[in-house]
Amino acid sequence: MSDPTCGVLLEHDGPIARLTLDRPASRNSLDLPLALALRDAVRSLEGDAAPRVLILRSSSAHFMAGGDVRRFDALLQDSPAACQAELARIIGAANDTVARLTRLPCPVIGLVGGSAAGFGLSLALACDLTLAAEDARFLFAYGAIGATPDGGASWHLPRRIGLQRALAMALLNTSLDAAQALAAGLVCQVVPAAELDAAGQRLARQLAAGAGQAQAGIKRLLRAALDSDLDTALDAEAASFLAQAEGPDFAEGVRAFCERRAARFDPSST
Predict the structure, then answer these.
(1) Which of 6, 100, 119, 166 could lock 37 by a disulfide, CB 3.0 to 4.6 Å apart?
(2) Which candidate, 20, 13, 94, 87, places its Cα nearest to that of 52?
(3) For residue 253, is it within any domain?
């Protein structure tokens, strides 16, 4: 699925899917058409259509500058009720997108350059592995317009960087540059802006060559552990390990280890 008129491009390159935000004139600011198109694109990647790896990126220098505040202002001037109704649809689609991204079995790589503000920050936080360009800046932004967060920012941010840092970002509207984001644990790697796409592709190819079912299980277990106790996590780990041990990837991985060679996992396994 690809709808360039709404600011979203979805492309497939073998086992790797690339979901591109393509509304450069507004720094990918989130309006209703973009919110709906993004949600529908992520929906299309579920089930049997799931890729081995998903890359989430921008076509321009900025990842996403948050909501389309100029659109909100125009709506408020015309009809506060219409603004409220449209915001409800935008937030519903945005929240659905984040929930579905985190539930995808495949690893999701976020490539962030320039501004990642408001829902742009929420979207970056929903990715499993986030790479930042050296010029990236992460900004909570909601408080600056008298709003509270959406897109799971209130859930993801304190879990990613700790409550104290999250509160400082949110209440003081302070930004993190790429180096600070790396130190805080918000991103896993920082690269020059000109190398961001290439670094993302290298990481995607590395992941696509791995054991897909094991990666899906690892992602599921680690995300579930954020809200479970140790006993629940131990039971889930045991069930997942034994299920994985019945599959061909486990047999290949064990045999490759014993033969001191690189494992050749089934590229179609997810």
Answers:
(1) 6
(2) 13
(3) yes
